[in-house]
Amino acid sequence: MKTIHMTTLGCDKNTIDSEMMLGLIAEKNYEIIDEPQEAAIIIVNTCCFIQSAKEQSIEYILDYVGYKNSGSCQLLIVAGCMAERYHTELAEEIPEIDGFLGVGHFDNIVDLITSLERPVADPASPPTSPVMPQYFGDIDKAISQTRRYLKPGTVSTFIRISEGCDHGCTYCVIPKIRGKYRSRPSQEIFSELQYLRDQGIEEIILIGQDIAPYGQDLDEGLDLPALLEVIASNFDFTWIRMMYLYPEGITDKLLAVVKRYPAICQYFDIPLQHLNDEVLKRMGRKMSFAQISQLVKKIRQTLPDTVLRTSIITGFPGETVAAHTDLINKIKVLPFDHLGVFKYSQEENTPAAEFMDQLTEDQKEQRYDEIMITQQALSYHQKQRFIGKTLKVLLEGVEDGAYYGRFYGDAPEIDGTVFVESSDPLTIGEFYSVKIVQALEYDLIGDIENEFTK
């Protein structure tokens, strides 16, 4: 069996794409391994959302070129967003790359590997480089329905319900990479959900670039609230989490469904990107701060235990000192439990890249630090409300004798942690009732609930 290693960079959508590829690979005569230095075939599923993501992808590719030159790696394949957007440039600059797999073509991974492994017809003739598949303009095809590869012990995973984006924000290149918005047919979603539940998955995370418009492009009569209701009524997942909801798509109907079903996490990831009206307008965003403020108030009134996450872009072209100060003040008015900050990245082929008054990296860094310091205090304050409460915690690991996990208010990888103290051995991947005794800036500390903690 030939060994294959997959490195996944970027967002949760890339994670699913990698699992789809590995699901197909696992059905063939290949062994999937975690160590790239020992693999005969290395696949890098890349990201190029912002400049730092591009740089990280290039660093990994160059590292693996070293493995190829040393003889351990026989084939190096670049997949994902960079393969879609920059395959021509990468082929010229890094000739050691053997093949490219663009977005929307992950179901072709085995065909690509097979074509690259095919021996030369005449052994006496000089070897030629394999023709690298190039994919142009086909990123809008239907979302593939492929059985995914899950590592043993996985209890939490993502399920994609939509792909692409139609919003047209002036700073974003995603529509050019992943195509126009298209919802996944509900029966495909339900089929995959059943498969995931059969594999022991306890938490599913519904994702897309923006899942709020789900169903609007289908003729099924199911919007996002209706889809959630079907899932919550028919599948016994412990947690059903939503991620990436643009604010204009959060309706009263959606809030009512979340309130009705305990399995649906009262957790909203709402990428706002800014709170100053002038900057929001230049970004091409659809809601004003007054509308955002009203929405946040409604969510908190309807679902008092809700945990809110957002993301902010700092250093957008033309963002004045006054606009930055306004942003800081409004973050304090709408205290979010979790807030991520990105420094604006000048992405080619986006309207904002041509805007005047681009800020310097030093200015972006200073504003980034100011936002993070502000959010640190707000996050600490928000965490205090959980002291004394008993929360259901999914245990994810143990380090230096301390158990750790997540409650409904923490999404995997990006949010905080619940540290759990217990005198008895606990089982990783199980849910426990934990009484919170202390809150830090981003994390909680609690004890397993028993007759002593009640």
TrEMBL record:
Binding-site residues for [4Fe-4S] cluster 1, renumbered to this chain: C11, C47, C81
Do you know which InterPro entries this protein is assigned to? Answer: Elp3/MiaA/NifB-like_rSAM, Methylthiotransferase, Methylthiotransferase_CS, Methylthiotransferase_N, Methylthiotransferase_N_sf, NA-bd_OB-fold, Ribosomal_uS12_MeSTrfase_RimO, rSAM
EC number from the UniProt entry: 2.8.4.4
Residues that hold [4Fe-4S] cluster 2 according to the record: C165, C169, C172
Where, subcellularly, is it found?
Cytoplasm
The record's annotation in SUPFAM superfamilies points to:
Radical SAM enzymes
The segment(s) forming the MTTase N-terminal domain are: 2-118
What is catalysed by this protein? Answer: L-aspartate(89)-[ribosomal protein uS12]-hydrogen + (sulfur carrier)-SH + AH2 + 2 S-adenosyl-L-methionine = 3-methylsulfanyl-L-aspartate(89)-[ribosomal protein uS12]-hydrogen + (sulfur carrier)-H + 5'-deoxyadenosine + L-methionine + A + S-adenosyl-L-homocysteine + 2 H(+)
Q: How is the cofactor bound?
A: Binds 2 [4Fe-4S] clusters. One cluster is coordinated with 3 cysteines and an exchangeable S-adenosyl-L-methionine.
Q: Which GO terms describe its molecular function?
A: 4 iron, 4 sulfur cluster binding; aspartic acid methylthiotransferase activity; catalytic activity, acting on a tRNA; metal ion binding; protein methylthiotransferase activity
CC terms in the record's Gene Ontology section: cytosol; ribosome
Tell me the keywords, alphabetical order: 4Fe-4S, Cytoplasm, Iron, Iron-sulfur, Metal-binding, Ribonucleoprotein, Ribosomal protein, S-adenosyl-L-methionine, Transferase
Q: Which PANTHER family match?
A: RIBOSOMAL PROTEIN S12 METHYLTHIOTRANSFERASE RIMO, RIBOSOMAL PROTEIN US12 METHYLTHIOTRANSFERASE RIMO
Chain's role: Catalyzes the methylthiolation of an aspartic acid residue of ribosomal protein uS12.
Similarity comment text for this entry = Belongs to the methylthiotransferase family. RimO subfamily.
Write down what this protein is called. Answer: Ribosomal protein uS12 methylthiotransferase RimO
Organism listed in the record: Acetobacterium wieringae
Q: Which gene encodes it?
A: rimO_2
